[in-house]
Each structure stands twice: as C-alpha cells, then as structure tokens.
Predict the 3D structure of the following.
Amino acid sequence: MAAPKKGRGQATGGQGRPGRALALILIVMGALIGGMFASGDLTPRLGIDLAGGTSITLRAENQPGKPDSINDTNMQTAIGIIERRVNGLGVSESEVQQQGERHIIVNIPKATDPKQAREQVGTTAQLYFRPVLTAAGSGPVGEPPAASGSPSPSASPSGKATPSGKATPSPSATTQGRAVPDALKKAPSPSATTSGKPAPSGSPSGTPSGAPKPSGSADAGTAALDAQFAALDCRPKGENKEVPNPARNADPAKPTVACGSEGDAKYILGPSEVEGTDVDEAKGVLDPQRGIWIVQLGFTDKGAKKFAATTGKLASQAPPMNQFAIMLDGQVVSAPSVNSVIGGGSAEITGSFNQDTATDLANILSYGALPLSFEEESVDTVSPALGGEQLMAGLIAGAIGLALVVIYLVVYYRGLALIALLSLLASAVLTYALMSLLGPAIGFALNLPAVCGAIVAIGITADSFIVYFERIRDEIREGRTLRPAVERAWPRARRTILVSDFVSFLAAAVLFIVTVGKVQGFAFTLGLTTLLDVVVVFLFTKPLMTLFARTKFFGSGHAWSGLDPKRLGVKPPLRRSRRSASVTIDPKEA
C-alpha cells in the first residue's frame, strides 16, 4: 500500500497551494503597473520607423596626413562620442551603429528638431581652438553686404577677468544669436559698415592695422590666403541655406580661412593652439546670482597649460587678434576674445544665452572631438504619419493573429479557452509594462520588427497552453479523473515547454548578437516574451488550471469544459476495468 499513499501524497502536494503562485505573479504585475504610473511612462517608447524622425548616414574620411585612421578602434570611439552628443539633446532612445567599415547610421526619433540633430550629429569633425588673425563680414571684400534682419554685431564694454577665469558682471551683446562672453569677451570688429556688418579695415584682406605683415619670403602663401579670404562668400546658399565650408579638411597645423557656422562672418585663422581632446567637460548652467545662462569650461591638465599660454598671447593683441575661434567641422561656432590670462584650467562664457543655446554650445565643446572626420552622406526623414500607419498596420496584424488564436482555442478547447485567454492577458500585461519601463531604463524603443516579435510571441505562448492541455487530455483518455490528470500531465508538459522555449530563446539571443539595428528589436522582443511565457505558464496557467479542476464544471467533465470524456473517446467500462485491476494488483504489491 506504500505506492498508492505516495501517489496520493504527490497529488495533494502538487494541488495544495496554487494560490501562492497566483498571488506572487499578481503582486509582480501590480508592482510593474505601479512603476509605470509612478515614473509617468505609461506607453512604450517608439522607434524612428513608428514615431517618425531623422536617419543620418555618415561616411568616415581619413584625416590629412593620416591615411590609416579609419579602423575599428577609431570607429567605435566615434560612435561613443556621437551617442553622447545625441544623448545631450535628450534623445536616449536614438540608435548609433556602424554599418560596414566606414559608415555610421544615426537614427533619431521625433523627440528633437531634425535641423538641430543635423547640426549636432552631422558636424562631426575635430574640434579646435584657433587664434583669429582677421575677421570680416560674410560677403566678398568690396561687395556691400546684403541687408539682414538678424542682429548686427556690437562691441561689449571692456571687462576684467578674475584669476579663475570668471568675469565681474558687465553688459554683453550677441552676434547672430551667438554668445559674447564676459570672461572671454568678443571685442569690437576692426570696423563696421553702415549696415552694422563687420568689414575689413587697413589692408584689402581686412587685416587690422596692428596685424603683422608677411615677409617677402612668405609673400606667396600669405597672398594666396588673403586672396582666398577676400573672395570668400560665407552667406548661406541654396534651398537648405547651407553655409560654405572651405576649412572642412584644413590642416590644423596651418593657417586657414573659415566661415562662421551661421554664415554671418568669415575669418583667417592661425594654426590650432588647443584641441577638442584638451577639453575635459563643458556644461550649460543657470547662474542664480546673475540670472543668466552660462557655459562652464573645464580643461585637462595638459589642456589647461595650453589654454593659459594661448590666452596669455591673445590678451596682449589688438582686436580682432585677441580672439580665439572655437572651430568645429571647419566652421567657427564661437569667437570670444580674451582680456587677460585665464589659468586654473577653467573658464566660463557668458552672453545672451538661453537654455537651448547654452546646452548646444556645451555639447559641442564636450563631445565635438572625434578621432575621424565624417561626411554627411544622406539624411532621411520619416514622417510621424507614415510611422503611425505602420504601427496601425502592425496592431491590426496582431489583432487578426490573436483573434484567430482565440477562435481556434474556443472551437477546439471550449472551456479551457478561458484559462488560455486569461494567461494571454497576463502575458500581455507583463509585456506591455516591461516595454514601457525598459524605455527610460535601457533606451529600448519599440520599432516595427519588435512589434512583429510580439506577434510571433502570441503563437509561442499559445503553443505552451496547447502542450499542457493535450497532456491533460491524454491522461483523461487513459481513464483518470481530472484532478489527478492535471498533476500527472504537468511534469511531461513542463519538460516539453521548457525545451521549446529554450530553443526559441536561443534563436533570439543568437539573432540579437549577430545582427544590428532594427532586427535586434525583433530578437529582443522575441527573447523577452519567451522568458515571460515560462513565467506565465509556471506561475499562472498551471495554478489556475489546478483551481479550475476543483470546480464542478471542469471536474465533472461538462460537455463545454473541453474535458468531456465522451468527446475524448473514453468509455466507462475501460475506466472501471482500470480501477479493478489496480485494486487487484495493490494487495500483491503490498
């Protein structure tokens, strides 16, 4: 009689406490939903193909004198810097990935302005600090500048800088929206036209009277640079208002001509004195005492020495040769002037900043230095309307697939379909909550392939239910009643479910590792839903089936329960004969 007692003990233990497992998964669901409401992330973040946005393709170019600079190390470094620059825009769900040997794809959802994204991401060459030798208006020398509605440059009153590089408060002005610093003040232009635009003075090249004149031996090179400067037209051109960029691939060790990034001025610049890699950090902050936005700069130890030496030389020069140009991708993004030596490895730039302009300049200074130069090969914009249509199509496809699964379950399994539908609902709640929370946590963005992965997961989850239900029905066909059949079927179904889910998860993991971009969204979603399938089947479907087996509707084998012995082909004589056989065998075994 020992064997029957053991069997009854196993059945009782297996069916005894299904409520604990159900309580556990319900608590987890409640915690995830509560986390969604607490964080305010009530919907998953959408990828660029669903939410709309901008996709930028960048092509790496070798730098002058460095023919082998395109390599995996430099490409990965560039990707990391571009990611930080994009994240500086507040777009953590963006994608930055390498494609081939020399291309980088940057996908930025609609969370930011496409023009701002191109300015921050597309201008990805080295960052240099160059001394200004000559400055003038944007048009060719001798041609009156066109009228403009933008603010004209104006001089700032002179101010004094403290040894730390911070200035005492004083008025400041702006140039086309650029900051004119106090600690690094923008000096008056050599002269101004009647329209207020800076114009060259002294020589035809616009060299100020205090500027050094070239010697006879250097006449040819200097004359060529002067001629290029005189003929340069930096005014925006074309439909996209592109600003010319003659210094994009200029040698940092040689003088060059350059345009302002807004096309409002042009410059002759000396060799680079400080590189972007010498900048340790930069941030735009609100100064509570003065109530203005400022950009704070910090340099590395090596950069601090370079910056102190550079500002020492510039402070003794006449305007505009006391200015240094912050040059990114061959264009001057700011050209503050220096009134005294700035040591200590820190400085601040003040002016008519707002939060956006201060943050933009800080991002350029922090993340501008790349080990490669890049050309913007293509820019594609996906409209939110197209993304909405794709999302709707994906949701419709998912609804159709779910409806077909439900119809099949109801027709074939009848009452058991209720358990399957409740399990699918639990799986859907867990999946939705996790996707919503993973967006801000790890930057997960739901794209169209990810939606496809979720649709495929419906079939995987339904397959687990079917395996378990069929095992239960096999036990009933062998003559057992429902409650023992539920417990005896579980070990066999469990092994099959685990093997099936392991294969699916392994395929998703391999796909995630070997692919890039949007296909990873499919693999990630497939892997996530496969893991959730195991959780739901073990902690929800099995305990729920145990509780339902105790009800009269299922336990008695109602015709609509899906477990009717007659529909399953079980004959009462067979069931009685099995009982009598077991009674006859037990005493012999005892």
Notes: Residues 482-514 form the longest helix (33 residues). The CA atoms of residues 259 and 266 lie 4 Å apart. Residues 124-372 form a domain with the Gyrase A; domain 2 fold (CATH 3.30.1360.200). Residues 1-14, 145-217, 573-590 have pLDDT under 50 and may be disordered.
